[in-house]
Structure formats: structure tokens, C-alpha cells
Amino acid sequence: MPIPPNPAIRPLDHLALAGEDHAPALVLRSGVLAYKDLRSRIAVLSGWLSHVLPEPGARVATWAAKGELTCLMPLAAARAGLVHVPVNPLLKRAQVAHILADSGARLLIGSPARLGTLEPDDIAGLYRALGEEEALAEATALGVALEPSSADPADLAAILYTSGSTGRPKGVMLSHANLWLGAESVATYLELSPPDQVLAVLPLAFDYGQNQLLSTWYAGGSVVPLDYLTGRDVVKAISRHDITTLAAVPPLWVQLVEQDWPAEVAGKVRRITNSGGALTPDLVRRLGQTFPNARIFAMYGLTEAFRSTFLDPALLASHPTSMGKAIPHAEILVMADDGTIAADGEEGELVHCGPLVAQGYWQDAERTAERFRPAPVASAYGGTAVWSGDRVRRDAEGLLYFVGRRDAMIKSAGNRISPQEVEEAALRTGLLAEAVVVGVPDERLGQVVHLVARARPDAQVNSEVMSSILLKELPNFMVPKVIHWRDALPLGPNGKVDRAALHAELTG
Asked: Which residue, 78, 184, 364, 453, is the most exposed by fewest CB within 10 angstroms?
């Protein structure tokens, strides 16, 4: 959608200008970059990029673990007039080849080990592929520093590829304004400030992960990137770097509340944020016990509009399953099936309007037309909106509650069943650490409910015990017909439970 003139919206690379010269901006294994260093490194890297790729709007892809290059590239590419395509380092050759071909990337910078897995045909469209250290060395040797850009905020700045849970990954097109306003919005409602130390554990190719960088730099704070192997790595990093802010997805929170936390370490954390899946009341309780000094922000987002809602931490205890209300710069409408605004308590589709709405899917007009449609007449913003496909309801206080995805609802014997509702009931027993519900085809009923579960380490539970408890909590048609026990649930590239893999396993 066109971005109205607004002096508060600036080119994305101007985020590097926020902090005081000698304040820490980025804490790397090799040392700390103060904001003065951050600005000079971005200027030099962008100068090299514009030399290597002089064509405005050319795509530059990165495929590496968190380090100087992956952290600087979102701003350096923007300053050079290029479009950044971050590739999740957990992806494999076929997925990366698809992203490179689909985006039309001309330059790929990555770790040598990852680049070595690609075949010649995978990189045939590239001008060049090189290692991250080689790229940084060339930039330093060239020594050309670009001044802050004067880009139009509506210009394309990045293409973020979704995880591909339904079909091949598709690239979401994000402008300077999308990313700038997302950073401003999050920094505002989280109340980030220069003293904050943010531990960045999420993939930087994930919109939630990349925003850890952008919102922190908007606020003048410091980012500590971490590629962790276990929950214990997170505990150690929080202790070492005096972390105040931690963002994660539910599977990681489950791991973290099972760790042994020294009181003085857990007490450092003042703010935790969750997205990528709902927090259960039990997990909310355990997070509060683990991090007694932290405000807990439950959030809902979608890559096509970055972030839609957050719940005021003061309301979490009384409304633990709520998604909250719209974040700054977002307008959230709940639309009934007849095209009117849904009444309080009525289920409807979440529609996101406003300047956080992305520019569509890269070179995919058909799927863009399905998701990006004219805003409802009731919208104050108008223009293009994201019709999420997610079913929600709004209570009399204006708080939103997730019901389920329209295409994920299980239909059994004429009944519509929300997987989330069954999962929440299973987790409320206190016997499970994780639970995922899948609809499995059935000749007689259409679909039946299957539950994939991981028991809590101290729980004595089996299928018979779980079923008997759920029979007391749920209607018969919602009680799982089969329970599959797992020692671990599969995770996708963004750290979320890979529901598509479980669905394929159980229905294949």
C-alpha cells in the first residue's frame, strides 16, 4: 500500500544512527561493536555491495550463522539500494536453491561449509558466491564508505521467505517503511531503552528474529546474537552478558523452564516476548516462576504484516490465552463471514490493515491476490489489507482470542474442532510438556483427532490416563482417538513445532 508522507519514517539504514557513539550496539564473539563502529562497518560494507552489485534493487542473499555479516546486512543492503534475502542457516540445499532461483539473487554470501553443499545448477543465476569472511575482507580492502541513504520509504528493502509449511516457501516483500515502523512499534510497546541487552536467539531470517536487531537499534540498545544448541547455552549467555530481554517461541520456552536457573541469573531478565504460537496457562505460570522479575509479552504475528497484536503484561494473569490488542501502526478487524464486523464473542477472520502490511509475495500474483485484498470498508486506513485466514474472536474489553486457522479446523462427523482447543485441554492436565493435534482422514467420520504428545519428565502418564482425563474436559467428539507418544517433537527452521511434518507422517 502507498506510504503517506511521514517525517518519522526514514530509510532503514538510519537505524544505525540511533545510539550514542560509544554505547555498545552489537556483542560478537570477536568483540563489541559500539554504535560508532556499527555505523562505520555498515558504511564500508554498503560501499562494497554497491561496487559489486551496482544495479539498484538487485537481490543479495545471506546464508550463514549469526555473526557480523548477517547482523549488518539488513542495513548495509538497504543503504546500497539492494534487496536483502536472508536465508535461514538451518535450511538445506534444495530449499536454498529454490529461494535463490525464485528471488533472482545475484550475490550469495555464506559460510564456506554451507556454500560447499550447493550444486553448480543451484548457483547458475548468481554473479558470485563467496564466504562471509572473504566478503568482509574485500569490503575493508576496498574502503569505500557510503553515507546514509535517502531511499524512498516505499522502496523494497527485503524479501523474507516463509517456512513453507504449506507448499514451497514464498517470499514476502517488505519495504523500508514496513521494517522501520515494525522496529519503532516494538521498541515503543516493549519500552526498550539504551541500557537494554537483548539476547537474539531466533533466526535472523525470521521476521520475529530480525526485529530483535532492528527494534533494539531503534531504541539505542545492544544486541547479543546467539546460535544455541541447548537451553543451557541460553542460561550461560544470560549470565555472561547481563541480558534484560529475551524473545522466543513456545518450544524454546518449554526447554528453558526445564533448565536449572540460578536465581541471580533468572533475575536479570526483565522482559520476555513470545510469538510463533500461543502460550498455555501452565507455561505462563512456569515462566512467571522461572523469571520472577520479567514482564511477559504474549504476541501474535504473521510475516505478511510482521506483527498484529500484543497483550499488556498486566493482563496476562487474568487473560492468559488472549492475543491482546493491536500493536502501534496496526489496525486489526474481526470480519464475520457475511463481510460485516463480527460482534463481541462472535468468531471471524482476523484482517490486518495499515502501514505494516507487506507489499505482497515476490513474483507470485496469484497467491498475493488470495491473501492481500482490499481492506474492509470499516477500515480507517483503507488500501490493501492482509486477510490472515486465522479465526479469532473479540471480547467485550476488545481483547482478541485465537480460535484456529480456517484450513486447519478438523471436521469430524459434522463437528468443527479447533486443534488449539484440544491441545490446550491436553496441556492443562499438567502431564504434558508439548502437544500437537492433527486431523487424520477417516472413512466413516471424515476426520478423527490424533494427539502427538511429549510427557513432562516427572509425569506418570499413558494413553489410558490421558484419555480418561480428557473425557471429563471435552465433548466426546473432541477427545483424541489415538495418542502418539514422542521423546521429542520435530521442529521447523524457525524453531516452531513442524506441524506439517507431523501431519504428513500421520496422514501419509
From this structure: 364
